[in-house]
Write a structure and sequence with these properties.
Strand order of the largest sheet of chain A: 10-9-14-15
Number of strands of chain A: 26
Shape of chain B: globular
Mean pLDDT of chain B: 89
Helix content of chain B: over 70%
Structural class of chain B: mainly alpha
Radius of gyration of chain B: 19 Å
Strand content of chain B: under 5%
Number of strands of chain B: 0
Number of domains of chain B: 2
CATH architecture of the domain at 220-313 in chain A: 3-Layer(aba) Sandwich
Largest interface: A-B, 24 and 28 residues
Largest sheet of chain A: 4 strands, parallel
Oligomer: heterodimer
Largest sheet of chain B: none
Shape of chain A: globular
Strand content of chain A: 15-25%
CATH topology of the domain at 220-313 in chain A: Rossmann fold
Number of helices of chain B: 16
Mean pLDDT of chain A: 90
Chain lengths: 483, 311
């Protein structure tokens, strides 16, 4: 019995589908997968789905939801059908991201040193200084090799015509890369032989490249610098990722309480006394990193870390204060940054963004609320968002009121983008669901490396446009083809 | 190695070993509860493994299924198997990058197993032995996996010290409870099945049969569990191994702490080595066991102070 019933695949109108060209012509990159799936029976596929769940569970790739006392282990939903990206698409994405990161990195250096971009009136000073993530503590602080955005996870989406847009830059502590690695491992188990047959590029080099970059940032000229990964601890939702990365790189996973500062140097407490730390890959947010400088109630960070950083005795990855380049209102200036710093035309487009501090733009947005997505500039993870097309009048009025009260600095509006869809195996049939793409870029002294792959997040709820895991999203393995 | 990591590895081992000890005890005691043995009681098990909260357990002590359920699945009893496994896994989780993926998976499966409704059903309605066997196998899998996949070196040393320290404390505790019971029920002294059980719950039954001919006697059991150097659950064997793994931690960086703790372990080892059944009895068995137990706890405290940076 042929299992995968493609006739029931109901494409969504005015939406780019990753598998189908309008009508029923299948894109070439999906031929081989579909041929493979057609040989399987529906029960085989459901078994594979079960196997995937079991593998995630037994490997402890879970996050814990605490309600009613005892924690419940949940797995991040995984869809077994891979998302495929062609070599041509990928080379464009790669160039676009590299260009963008170069500009963003120059922006961060500029904004924390000479501020030419403000003096030349490309970006208004008020916008920068009103950003809560612009940290005066970083002013004139020299970071190794002038690199700020060592690790980034740029979120890309596709509009109805297939054009790629950058939705967010995620330059602080982007997460999810362990899922890129684990999803691939699971797919290898689910579809034996399919990956080499399809010429899928490998993602396994990620930890090695990251480790090499981290080593090369050591301020001490020693042959074997101490690199650590600083985690908030096992109750953090991304803890599994922290341990995976530490294990794959062979570095020590530390918590704030494992570190102490002596003479503006960082040490870790070991069974044989103190050992100096040279490089910290931190997964703790800026605000919690040093209670002496930032949030004084934080127990996740290390008292005195900023002084060691300022003295140049330790490298911190990503740099502190990157949030200013991540701000959703500053985001709309990234194309200007690319022109200003690189004198190039931006390859990847920004989603058109209306600043609600500007009266004309605000009036336009208020008239067209149903076509807009309103976002708070300093929230992420799908929180603080109003989807105009699905919101009630009441909710819209509530947001308008909030925006007026705020003056508009902390909100932006973007037209609703109809995210592209990819086939998902749900309830025994293939169904289209909205997806985005987050490739991970590593910026080291030798340049930018983007591992061919990434995390495809998928809105598993029918009709949903929000892919965040907090809003019922899942993920897929992401294949970049070599030819 | 980070002090916190060393501490977690050590506690991970202690909790796994403790869960293993409870499971063995439960299995044998359950078997004897089915055997209509004269004067069978869950009291000793309850005394050792209920951490003071004995009231609830004492109320159900004549119902084996309920005792098992409490000792296996109760979240309220800090010594229940489910709590031991949860703690072991929490410790493992915080040092995941230091143990092999195989070992982590094994512990993870152990954890998911004890939470399975099916297991509870075996205990409540079906054959409880099946549940105990399934769990017991998982511990053996853990030890096999640890042995064949974990790197040798500091990690292994801390894990082994934890394991053997826990094991020796348990053996001493079991002896203590069994011999204390005798003082109130002197007739048990001559009861072969009483000693047989003790040996079965420690896994020393076969070795006893090979070493001693002519029935079960209290003194010989004592000798086997305290002083036999080939019995993996004897106090002597365990302390010898604590010493052996501790010696590998020697480092010039903290030589003073090392020497201090090494002295304590050495003294304990000598105390046991130069004991005999005769000398133990002369000293008073309770006193002797109490002294050994204190020494073992002292080693744990010094590890905490010198190596786990908790001071």
């Amino acid at each position: 019995m042929g299992s995968v019933n493609l006739n029931s695949y109901a494409q969504i109108a005015n939406t780019w589908d990753e598998m189908y060209i309008a009508g029923d012509r299948m894109r070439e990159q999906y031929h081989q997968i579909i041929r493979y799936l057609e040989q399987e029976s529906a029960s085989d596929l459901s078994k594979k789905e079960e196997l995937a769940k079991r593998l995630f569970m037994s490997q402890g790739i879970t996050f814990t939801v605490y309600d009613s006392g005892e924690g419940i282990e949940k797995i991040f939903p995984f869809d077994i059908i891979p998302r495929v990206i062609t070599a041509t698409e990928w080379s464009f994405i790669e160039l676009g991201i590299k260009q963008r990161l170069k500009a963003l990195n120059l922006f961060l250096k500029d904004v924390y040193t000479n501020q030419f971009i403000i003096k030349d009136k490309v970006i208004p000073a008020g916008l920068i200084y009103s950003c809560p993530h612009f940290l005066r503590e970083m002013h004139q602080l020299k970071v190794p090799h002038d690199i700020y955005v060592h690790i980034s996870g740029i979120d890309l989406i596709r509009d109805y015509d297939g054009t790629f847009y950058v939705l967010e830059d995620n330059l602080r502590t982007p997460s999810g890369v362990s899922y890129m690695l684990e999803n691939r491992e699971i797919t290898k188990r689910l579809f034996p032989d399919l990956i080499p047959q399809c010429n899928v590029r490998s993602v396994t080099e990620y930890p090695a490249v990251l480790y090499k970059n981290l080593m090369s940032l050591s301020p001490r000229a020693v042959s074997n610098p101490t690199v650590v990964l600083l985690s908030p601890g096992m109750f953090n939702s991304a803890y599994y990722e922290h341990t995976t990365l530490a294990r794959l790189m062979g570095v020590e996973l530390v918590e704030g309480r494992d570190l102490v500062i002596r003479d503006h140097k960082v040490f870790m407490k070991t069974t044989t006394g103190l050992q100096q730390v040279d490089v910290i890959y931190r997964r703790v947010d800026d605000d919690f990193i040093d209670p002496l400088v930032f949030n004084p109630n934080s127990v996740l960070g290390v008292a005195g870390l900023m002084s060691a950083y300022r003295k140049g005795n330790v490298a911190i990855i990503n740099a502190i204060g990157n949030g200013v380049a991540d701000d959703k209102a500053v985001y709309s200036y990234v194309p200007d940054m690319i022109k200003y710093y690189l004198n190039e035309t931006p390859l990847l487009k920004n989603v058109p963004t209306y600043s609600l501090g500007n009266h004309d733009e605000r009036a336009y947005v208020f008239e067209n609320m149903h076509k807009m997505v309103i976002k708070k500039t300093n929230e992420s993870g799908g929180y603080g968002m109003l989807m105009g097309h699905a919101a009630s009048e009441e909710e819209i009025e509530k947001y308008k009121k909030e925006i007026r009260k705020d003056g508009g600095r902390n909100f932006i509006a973007q037209p609703t983008i109809s995210l592209s869809t990819a086939p998902c195996y749900i309830d025994g049939v293939l169904q289209p669901r909205r997806v985005d793409l987050r490739p991970y870029a590593l910026y080291g002294p030798d340049g930018i490396t983007i591992v061919p792959g990434g995390l495809t997040r998928v809105a598993l709820k029918e009709g949903s446009l929000v892919v965040n895991s907090s809003q019922g999203g899942g993920s897929k393995d992401t294949w970049v083809l070599s030819c | 190695m980070l002090s916190r990591v060393a501490s977690s590895l050590y506690w991970l081992s202690r909790y796994v070993e403790r869960s293993d000890g409870i499971l063995r005890m439960l299995k044998i005691n359950y078997a004897s509860s089915q055997d209509n043995i004269q004067a069978f009681t869950w009291d000793p098990v309850i005394n050792i493994f209920s951490a003071g909260s004995t009231d609830e357990l004492s109320a159900v002590k004549d119902d084996s299924r309920q005792v098992l359920e409490q000792l296996l699945f109760s979240r309220e009893n800090p010594c229940s198997v489910i709590n031991m496994i949860t703690l072991a896994r929490e410790n493992a989780r915080s040092v995941q990058e230091h143990i092999t993926k195989d070992l982590w998976q094994c512990l993870n499966e152990y954890y998911h197993l004890v939470r399975e409704p099916k297991l509870r059903w075996y205990v409540q309605k079906d054959d409880p032995m099946t549940a105990l066997d399934l769990l017991g196998k998982q511990v053996m899998l853990y030890y096999g996996t640890a042995d064949s996949t974990m790197e040798r070196g500091e990690i292994r040393s801390f894990m082994s010290i934890g394991k053997f320290l826990e094991r020796s404390i348990q053996s001493v505790d079991i002896l203590n409870t069994k011999f204390t019971t005798i003082s109130s029920h002197p007739d048990l002294l001559m009861d072969a099945s009483y000693w047989q059980h003790l040996l079965l719950s420690l896994g020393g039954y076969e070795l006893y049969l090979k070493s001693y001919r002519g029935g079960f006697e209290a003194e010989q059991v004592l000798e086997l569990v305290m002083l036999n150097s080939d019995f993996p659950r004897s106090a002597k064997y365990a302390v010898k191994n604590i010493q052996r793994y501790f010696e590998r931690l020697k480092s010039e960086k903290n030589i003073e702490d090392y020497n201090n703790l090494s002295f304590n372990i050495g003294r304990l080892h000598s105390t046991i080595t130069y004991s005999s059944v005769y000398s133990m009895k002369a000293e008073g068995l309770n006193n002797y066991l109490y002294k050994i137990r204190n020494e073992l706890y002292g080693i744990g405290n010094l590890l905490n102070e010198y190596y786990f940076a908790n001071s």
